Every structure is written in C-alpha cells, then in structure tokens.
Amino acid sequence: MKTNLLKNKKIAIVGGGMAGLTLARLLQMQNVEVKVYERDFNRDVRVQGSTLDLHEGTGLEAMKRAGLLEEFYKNHRAAASEMLLVDRALNIKFDDHGFAKFTSETRPEIDRAPLRDILLNSLHPHTVVWDSRFSSMEKENTGWRIQFKNGTTAYADVVVAADGANSQVRPYLSSLKPVYSGVTLLQGDIDEAAKNTPGLFTFAKGGKVMAFDDEKMIGYGSKGDGSIMFVAAFKCSQSWLSECGIDFKNQDQVLSWFKKEFSTWSEGWQEFFTAHGVSFIPRPQYYFPLDQKWETQNNLTMIGDAAHRMPPFAGEGANVAMQDSFELADVLTNGRFSDIKAALAYFEQDMITRGADATRMTLENTEKMFSKTSLEQMLSFFKNVHGAK
Ligand SMILES: Cc1cc2nc3c(=O)[nH]c(=O)nc-3n(C[C@H](O)[C@H](O)[C@H](O)COP(=O)(O)OP(=O)(O)OC[C@H]3O[C@@H](n4cnc5c(N)ncnc54)[C@H](O)[C@@H]3O)c2cc1C
Predict the structure, then answer these.
(1) Second label for 110, Cα 20 to 30 Å away, from 87, 121, 242, 341?
(2) Does the structure show a pLDDT above 90 at 50?
(3) How crowded is residue 326: how many other Cβ atoms within 10 Å of its Cβ?
(4) What's the CA-to-centroid distance between 49 and ligand 1, angstroms?
(5) Domain count within the chain
(6) What is the CA radius of gyration of the chain?
C-alpha cells in the first residue's frame, strides 16, 4: 500500500511562485495539509514578470501531473513564440513568424500572471497566507516555528523553501553563497505598450524580439495584458549596481546611462527608456556553484531558485523549479521511502544534479550571448532549431 510520509503532518511552503504553488497543488491532490506563506500582500499586488515557455518533461509535465494542462492550453499564447532576431541597428536577421512550429508546439508560452492564476485557483481556499514574509525560524518539537515579519508565527512539521533567488530560508540548509555570472540585466515594464512605446510594440508583431551585438543583448515581448517587459543585459563588475549611483526610479538617469552603455545601438531602442510610466529593476545575475551540496535534514528542504538560481539565458529556471515540485511531491507520497529524510536525500541528490545541468547549459548560453560573435552564433542556433533556410 502507498504510504504518504506526510500523513497527519503540517507542511509549510515559504514562497508562492511557480515552484511553491505547483508543489502545494500536487500535495493537496494527495490530501496533504499544506500552507503557502507568501510575502505579497495579496494575489494582485505585484506585476508578474516575463512570459515563460514551458518545456516537455519539466514545466509542461508539472501542469499535466497537476491536472491543469487543459487550463494551461486555454491560456497559452501561440503568438508569443514567434520571434525576430535583430542586430543593434534593429535590422531583422531572422523572422520565424508563421513557422515558429518548434517553439509553439513543444515549448508553448504563457504569461506568468495567468499561469499563477491557474495554480492559485486550483488550491483549496485559504491555502496561501498572504502578507507572510519569512523572517526566521527555530526548531520546535520535531518541526519548526516560523516567524513572519508581520509578527505572526506558524508551526510546521516540514518546511519547504520556495522563496526564490534571494531565499531567506536557504541559509538554514546551506551557507554557500552564489557566484556572480559577470552579467547584469536591467528589466523594464511598460503598461499599455501600444500607446506608450508604439514603435517597438508594432515592430514585435505580437511576438518577441531579441537583439545581440557588441557583447550585450536586448530582449522584449508583449504580453496578453497589453504590457511589454524588456531586458537590457550587459557585462559589468559585481559591484556595478552599488557603485553606479543611478536612481532607478529616475527615468532621466536611466536613459542617460543607457545612451552611454548602449552608445553603438540604434536610437530606436531609447523609446523604452522615454516611455511613459516605465519602471526599472536592475538584476545582477548569480548562480549557485555546480558542485554544491548540503546535509539533508528530516524536516526542511528547498526547491526552485532558492536551491539553484541561475541567469535566465536558457529559459530553464521556472521549468526546473516546476520539475522540483513534482519530483518532491512524488518522493514524499509514493510510498517508496521509509522516512522523510530518506525521501529528501534522494530528492536533493537528483535535484542538485538537474540544477547543475541546467546551470551549466545556462552558463554556456551566457558565454555565447555575450561574446563578440553573439549575433552570428544566435543566428546559426535559431536557423538550426527551426530548420529554416
Ligand atoms: C527577466 C527574467 C526572465 C526569465 N525568463 C525565464 C524563462 O523564459 N523561462 C524560465 O523557465 N525561467 C525564466 N526565468 C527564471 C524564472 O523566473 C525563475 O527561475 C522562477 O521564477 C523560479 O521560480 P521560484 O518559484 O523558485 O521562485 P520565484 O518565482 O521567484 O518565486 C518566489 C516567491 O517567493 C516569494 N518570497 C520571496 N521572499 C519571501 C519571503 N522572505 N517570505 C515569503 N515569501 C517570499 C516571492 O514573492 C515569490 O512569490 C526568468 C527570470 C528573469 C529574472
């Protein structure tokens, strides 16, 4: 008979991103008592980031196991898979509109907000405890007493850290620090893009645009809600952000930085930086060492970016995170392990290997995308992938 190791136990998932919500859904399908403690004040408070493509065997497999594949396909956006590859002067080098078969069929895209909604709507009412920013925890009986910034506490027999790249729970498992990748990206979000950045909005034809040149890249895509998210990524030192002196709330300061940093790029790109209401988030890109390991505990583990943060240059982060969720739910409920620690040891060993593989691939891509021959390399990559002339 299947023994669910979590029977009569309270599970706390810290962080309601893709990893945390997927895990909560899968555990609830096995009748596990689970709460998700999320720092956001409510489900609508934060703009959700980039459009994601889910991959077979990982992100898509998670949706399948969660019984949410149909909902996923109702909300995915085929147009988001279509892409223009351009140079810094906005000359089109490759256009797969109309034949983005590979990506739309095997790697369908979905905006994060609807994906998050699908997962949230699948959970029992009150599963997510909003406004619960984790601040610390201490051992209590065989589990943990968790302390939140708002002064509340909660007890859990098992805690799962799913609180993303800057996880506050991770240090209870590992003191290993992330390594800087050499690349920082500036993320920009623009609402009502057709009105606020009409030139670049129209140029994208509803899909995405990627530009590589000069050891830099700019990428953007429009989302179903009419907004655009773009990233401008460049090589710089780890201390750039603390030393640059830019106030990222000040559009003029960001524009003048962009003009200097991307001085050889077409002025057409500046439309993003002059757009009404644009908001910026600088994101230095880090990853955890490929050979990381930690001592398995019997009541604590981590998944997603908390366990294996990496730059977004292979589009693997959310996919690996969602795979972590189904692998973890499986080992804890499939009856093949004698106790939680044995299940977690098996899970963590496999996750560390998968995370390292995805990180290695990401770092190889990063090397290519920020090399002097990036445009040629990316052009040949996409031509191969799409079997294009
Ligand atoms: C610009 C950009 C583009 C990307 N593009 C892609 C892509 O195309 N494909 C892909 O697969 N991946 C992509 N990624 C990576 C992807 O976003 C992450 O790998 C993925 O979101 C990880 O999921 P997660 O659930 O582990 O973490 P997150 O999605 O970061 O979720 C963490 C959650 O924890 C919450 N939280 C944080 N701290 C606390 C706290 N102290 N207490 C309580 N809650 C907390 C957060 O509010 C959040 O809801 C991209 C990332 C970036 C930055």
Answers:
(1) 87
(2) no
(3) 19
(4) 9
(5) 1
(6) 21
Query: Domain for residue 69, yes or no?
Result: yes
CB-ligand 1 contact for 36 (6 Å cutoff): no
Give domain status of residue 156, yes or no. Answer: yes
| Percentage, residues of the chain above pLDDT 90 | 86
Average pLDDT over residues 276-299: 97
Residue 321 lies in a domain: yes
What secondary structure does DSSP assign to 227-261, as a single string? Answer: -EEEEEEEE--TTHHHHS---TT-HHHHHHHHHHH
Residue 207 pLDDT exceeds 70:
yes
pLDDT at position 389: 44
pLDDT band at 96 (very low <50, low <70, confident <90, very high): confident
Reported as a single tens digit per residue, the pLDDT across 325-374 is 999 999 999 999 999 999 999 999 999 999 999 999 999 999 999 999 99
Ligand 1 in contact with 43 (CB < 6 A)?
A: no
* Ligand 1 atom, smallest distance to 55 CA: 11
> In a 10 Å sphere around its CB, with 0-12 CB exposed, 13-18 middle and 19+ buried, how is residue 381 labelled?
middle
Of ligand 1's listed atoms, the one at least distance from the Cα of 59 is 11
CATH number at residue 326: 3.50.50.60
The range of the structural domain enclosing residue 341 comes to 10-77+112-177+289-364
Site to substitute for ligand 1 among 305, 316, 325, most atoms within 8 A of C-beta = 305
What does the block give as tokens for 339? 């106790």
Residue 350 lies in a domain: yes
Angle at which helices 18-28 and 112-121 pack, to 10 degrees?
Answer: 20
Mutate to test the pocket of ligand 1, among 13, 18, 45 (most ligand atoms within 8 A of CB): 18
- Minimal CA–CA distance to 316: which of 307, 326, 305? 305
